[in-house]
């Protein structure tokens, strides 16, 4: 069965690249959102297997999104993988305190992103 992934990133070209890779290389279905607010609406409306979430976004950053998604009984069990360009040592401590499935650094390798996600979530072929 195909996995459904919500990709949330304010950078359209990166969001499109991630979706294309996940669909073409992973065979997964993707839904995309350009902001945390739109991502929250998508997560309410769609059954999702994982959310690939940009940390640095205007209006609502990844941490604000995370708090809201985890506070909602309908969406709190959806695994979240952070997609970020800026990871400082203190960030890893903060990530460890959150229940996140993993972190993928930008720029990500388009060839390896499906494998990275599958490993983080223990998805077996």
Structural notes for this entry:
The modification 4-aspartylphosphate is found at residue 54. Keywords: Phosphoprotein. Residues 4-121 form the Response regulatory domain. This protein is an alpha/beta fold. The protein has a single domain (4-121), classed as Response regulator (Rossmann fold), CATH 3.40.50.2300. The protein is 41% helix and 19% strand. The chain is built from five helices and five strands. It has helices spanning 12-24, 36-45, 62-71, 89-97, 113-121; strands spanning 4-8, 29-33, 50-54, 80-84, 102-105. Strands 2-1-3-4-5 form a five-stranded parallel sheet, with helices on both faces. Helix 4 (89-97) links the parallel strand 4 (80-84) and strand 5. Helix 2 packs parallel to helix 3.
The number of domains is 1
What fraction strand?
15-25%
The strand line-up of the biggest sheet is 2-1-3-4-5
Rg is 13 Å
Q: Kindly report the name of the CATH homologous superfamily.
A: Response regulator
Per the CATH scheme, the topology name is Rossmann fold
The residue-averaged pLDDT reads 92
Q: Portion of residues in helices?
A: 40-55%
| CATH C-level | Alpha Beta
Q: Which stretches are low in confidence, meaning pLDDT under 50 for 5 or more residues running?
A: none
Give the oligomeric state of the chains in this entry, treating copies of one chain as homo and distinct chains as hetero. single chain
Assigned CATH architecture? 3-Layer(aba) Sandwich
The biggest beta sheet is recorded as: 5 strands, parallel
The run of helices and strands is: EHEHEHEHEH
**What is the end-to-end distance?**
10 Å
Number of strands: 5
Distinct helical segment count: 5
Large-scale geometry? globular
- Helix/strand-derived category reads alpha/beta
InterPro entries: Bact_response_regulator, CheY-like_superfamily, Sig_transdc_resp-reg_receiver
Protein name: Chemotaxis protein CheY
Domain Response regulatory: 4-121
Modified residues (4-aspartylphosphate): 54
